[in-house]
């Protein structure tokens, strides 16, 4: 219609111009200006509609992309996950729930070992290891876990995004309802350990699947409460053999076939020993699997520590072990326990739930990692 209208105006203008009628010429010019105004109005309307639609679409995408992250459990896994969440542009708010108080959290005394590849990753996330108290050896960083947790908590508070710390708060069904009521998309990260209930409260099944690792192991802990806390590096020894002929003469026959892996770890106030060996039917393993005399395992751990300890550590006596050593009375099978469900999406409240760390999978064995 506009094309026909333009042609009509052009023909009229041509006719008026040829006849040189002033009134007709003025009328033709008016029609042309009116037509131009209509064109401009339509164009402006289209631009306004396009801008408004684009703005609405961008706002919808922005609202869908925005994410509130809820971390349950302020251990090393939980706080590291919180740090990664704050570095994500889509995360607009962080909420942390921890059953213990902050003071108690920062007093945790067990030692953690951060492997070289993890050190490099954490440096990229803003962790300044030069400002952390600890020990370096072979690219591995050893520190008291409370020091690491306190440092990460301070880092989280430096971000401009809102961070809501809830210490001394056990996650319960009432808090689950509060999480559901948060507007927008949410991500709950359950890091409350193998005995935590957060994942079940949020709707995940607590069923676990147990897998054999094909390894036997035993653990011991030596408490030295009179020592000053000093981080210690790990000691790893392979092909360790034991002479058990004093307990079982048959065990001496295949002593050379039963070689153990030993790891000594922990800080100066509490040293841990972990023994492990692949499943085998050797007499040595059978003896250590069925032994009823606890002194056998105590003597094994005692000799292992005194033989392979660090040069700056004092030897321990049998009488000291009687009062300050806790240990496995015999070898046991090391198993992996893994949750059947580790992630879920709850559409009603637009909530993603995932489990991490020991809340997702754990061993009945500790190697200090």
Write a concise synopsis of the structure shown.
This protein has helices at 2-19, 22-65, 76-86, 102-106, 116-124, 145-156, 173-181, 198-201, 283-290, 294-308, 318-324, and strands spanning 67-72, 91-97, 111-114, 135-137, 140-144, 163-166, 185-190, 208-223, 235-240, 260-267, 270-278, 325-327, 332-339, 343-346, 351-355, 361-363. With 369 residues, the protein is α+β, with helices and mostly antiparallel strands. α3 links the parallel β1 and β2.
Secondary structure: elements and pairs:
Layout: H1 2-19, H2 22-65, E1 67-72, H3 76-86, E2 91-97, H4 102-106, E3 111-114, H5 116-124, E4 135-137, E5 140-144, H6 145-156, E6 163-166, H7 173-181, E7 185-190, H8 198-201, E8 208-223, E9 235-240, E10 260-267, E11 270-278, H9 283-290, H10 294-308, H11 318-324, E12 325-327, E13 332-339, E14 343-346, E15 351-355, E16 361-363
Parallel strand pairs: 1-2, 1-7, 2-6, 7-15
Antiparallel strand pairs: 3-5, 4-5, 8-11, 8-12, 8-13, 9-10, 10-11, 13-16, 14-15
Helix pairs in contact: 1-2, 3-6
From the alpha carbons, calculate the radius of gyration and give it in angstroms. 35 Å
Structural class: alpha+beta
* Helicity range: 25-40%
| Number of DSSP E strands | 16
CATH superfamily caption of the largest domain = FAD/NAD(P)-binding domain
Q: Under the CATH scheme, which class of the largest domain?
A: Alpha Beta
Oligomer: single chain
Q: Mind telling me which CATH architecture of the largest domain this is?
A: 3-Layer(bba) Sandwich
Element order, helices and strands? Answer: HHEHEHEHEEHEHEHEEEEHHHEEEEE
What's the structural domain tally?
A: 3
Distance between the termini: 78 Å
Averaged pLDDT, please? 85
Keywords: Membrane, Transmembrane, Transmembrane helix
Transmembrane segments: 28-52, 64-86
């Amino acid at each position: 219609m506009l094309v026909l209208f333009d042609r009509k105006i052009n023909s009229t203008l041509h006719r008026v111009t040829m006849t040189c009628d002033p009134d007709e010429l003025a009328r033709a010019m008016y029609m042309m200006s009116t037509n131009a105004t209509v064109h401009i109005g339509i164009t402006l309307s289209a631009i306004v509609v396009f801008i408004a639609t684009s703005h609405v679409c961008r706002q919808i995408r922005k609202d869908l992309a925005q994410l509130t992250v809820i971390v349950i459990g302020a251990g090393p896994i939980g706080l590291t996950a919180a740090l990664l969440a704050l570095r994500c542009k889509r995360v607009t708010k962080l909420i942390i729930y921890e059953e213990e108080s902050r003071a108690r959290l920062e007093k945790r005394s067990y030692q953690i070992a951060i492997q070289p590849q993890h050190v490099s990753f954490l440096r990229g996330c803003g962790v300044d290891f030069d400002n952390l108290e600890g020990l370096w050896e072979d690219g591995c960083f050893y520190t008291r876990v409370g020091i690491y947790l306190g440092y990460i908590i301070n880092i989280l508070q430096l971000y401009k995004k809102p961070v809501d710390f809830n210490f001394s708060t056990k996650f319960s069904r009432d808090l689950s309802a509060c999480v559901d009521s948060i507007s927008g998309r949410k991500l709950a990260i359950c890091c409350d350990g193998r005995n935590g209930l957060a994942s079940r409260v949020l709707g995940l099944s607590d069923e676990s699947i147990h897998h054999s690792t094909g390894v036997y192991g035993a653990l011991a802990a030596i408490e030295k409460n009179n020592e000053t806390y000093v981080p210690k590096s790990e000691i790893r020894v392979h092909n360790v053999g034991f002479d058990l002929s004093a307990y079982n003469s048959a065990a001496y026959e295949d002593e050379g076939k039963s070689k153990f892996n030993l790891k000594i770890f922990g800080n100066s106030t509490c040293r841990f020993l972990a023994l492990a060996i692949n499943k085998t039917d050797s007499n040595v393993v059978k003896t250590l699997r069925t032994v009823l005399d606890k002194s056998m395992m105590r003597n094994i751990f005692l000799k292992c520590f005194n033989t392979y300890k660090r040069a700056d550590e004092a030897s321990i006596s049998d009488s000291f072990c009687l009062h300050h050593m806790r240990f496995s009375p015999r070898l046991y099978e090391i198993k992996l326990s893994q949750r059947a469900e580790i992630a879920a999406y709850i559409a009603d409240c637009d909530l993603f739930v995932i489990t991490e760390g020991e809340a997702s999978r754990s061993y009945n064995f500790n190697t200090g990692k």
